[in-house]
Amino acid sequence: MSYKSVKRGNPKKETQIIAVINQKGGVGKSTTAINLSAALGELKKKVLVVDFDPQGNTTSGFGIEKEELESDIYDVLLHDADIAESVCETPQKRVFVVPATIQLAGAEIELVSAMARESVLKEKIDKIADDFDYVFIDCPPSLGLLTVNALVAAKSLLIPIQCEYYALEGVTKLIESMKMVKSRLNSNLEIFGVVMTMFDSRTTLSKQVVEEVENYFGNLMFKTLIPRNIKLSEAPSHGLPVTMYAPSSKGSVAYAKLAKEVIRRG
Ligand SMILES: Nc1ncnc2c1ncn2[C@@H]1O[C@H](COP(=O)(O)OP(=O)(O)OP(=O)(O)O)[C@@H](O)[C@H]1O
Ligand SMILES: [Mg+2]
Fold first, then answer.
1. β 88-89/95-98 pair status
2. Which of 23, 27, 105, 186 could pair covalently with 54 via S-S, beta carbons 3.0-4.6 A apart?
3. β-pairing, 156-162 with 16-20?
4. CA distance 89 to 101
5. Residue 52 near residue 138 (C-beta atoms within 8 A)
6. Which of 21, 23, 27, 30 to mutate to test the pocket of ligand 1 (most atoms within 8 A of CB)?
7. Is the beta carbon of 25 within 6 A of some atom in ligand 1?
8. Tens digit of pLDDT at every position of the chain (266 positions)
9. Closest atom, ligand 1, to C-alpha of 236
């Protein structure tokens, strides 16, 4: 089914364009992009996830076969493929993906010589964003030109932070990049929220990290903590969001709760 025939949950509201970002690897960006989107889809929101990481974890996590794609985000960025035509269905109703494959790794270098190289992604996303309630951009773990494109395309940032030692390390660097982009290229950019991932209620470390992040970010930190949960790590290998793979698991319940908080925030 084409995304065009699916109705938005609230067509009058401005579309949220949110980059899921943290240059630290493995903190739960893709897991959050997949499962938060799916949970929002369940709540009748129409969602687009732009996979903007050459690893393509969000693409494969939704069970999309990379070999069978006619075009991906790389073709859209650099070879004038139509973004509307690259949009794929996912197993979750109302949730769609612009997929990524390893091709995207080349974009980091090829974009350098492109016109308005920092705003190529924005130009493409803006063509179809109005068709969705939420657009998420799943960022790669780096602060290169791809990430700058995501920071220019987004209206706000969702920062997943893993409940681990040195959780805030690197986040100050991310905030610096955000400020740089804000002052030169995207003056309205703001933080949508911070989500704590892989929380383990049995450890004092997890609790300390949450406290530390709350001291730093205040109310920007979502109250919902995403627990460490095996179902969340198993679901991608089945090509399903956890809401479908294991709907009653702790991980699924947590992302459903997070989705409600996200909707309340905007
Ligand atoms: N809450 C969780 N409980 C258990 N495992 C998790 C949880 N969140 C993420 N994981 C697992 O941790 C690993 C890293 O998660 P994920 O791929 O979402 O991070 P990422 O920030 O997108 O990584 P990258 O920076 O490489 O893109 C994955 O194997 C994922 O399945
Ligand atoms: Mg990822």
1. antiparallel
2. 105
3. parallel
4. 16
5. yes
6. 30
7. yes
8. 799 999 999 999 999 999 999 999 999 999 999 999 999 999 999 999 999 999 999 999 999 999 999 999 999 999 999 999 999 999 999 999 999 999 999 999 999 888 889 999 999 999 999 999 999 999 999 989 999 999 999 999 999 999 998 888 889 999 999 999 999 999 999 999 999 999 999 999 999 999 999 999 999 999 999 999 999 999 999 999 999 999 999 999 999 999 999 999 98
9. 31
CA 181 from chain centre, in angstroms, equals: 18
Helix axes 29-42, 250-265, angle to 10 degrees: 70
Tell me which ligand sits closest to the C-alpha of residue 32.
Answer: 1
Q: How far is the CA of 240 from the centre of ligand 1 (A)?
A: 15
Inter-residue long-range contacts of 164-168, CB under 8 Å, 24+ positions, other chains counted: 164/198, 164/205, 164/209, 165/205, 167/209, 167/212, 167/213, 168/212, 168/213, 168/216
**What does the block give as tokens for 179?**
């400020």
Which SS3 state, helix, strand or coil, does residue 20 take? Answer: strand
Q: 177 in the Ramachandran plot: left (φ > 0), alpha (ψ -120 to 50) or beta? A: alpha
Q: For ligand 1, is residue 206 a contact (CB within 6 Å)?
A: no
Residue nearest to atom 5 of ligand 1 (CA): 233
Residue 31 Cβ inside 6 Å of ligand 1? The answer reads: yes
- Is ligand 1 within 6 A of the CB of residue 224? no
Q: What is the DSSP letter of 98?
A: E
CATH architecture of 3-265: 3-Layer(aba) Sandwich (3.40)
Q: Is 26 in the pocket of ligand 1 (CB under 6 A)?
A: yes
CA angle in degrees (0–180, nearest 5) for 237-241-247 = 115
| 142 CB within 6 A, ligand 1 | no
Report how far residue 246's alpha carbon sits from residue 237's, in angstroms, rounded to the nearest whole number: 13
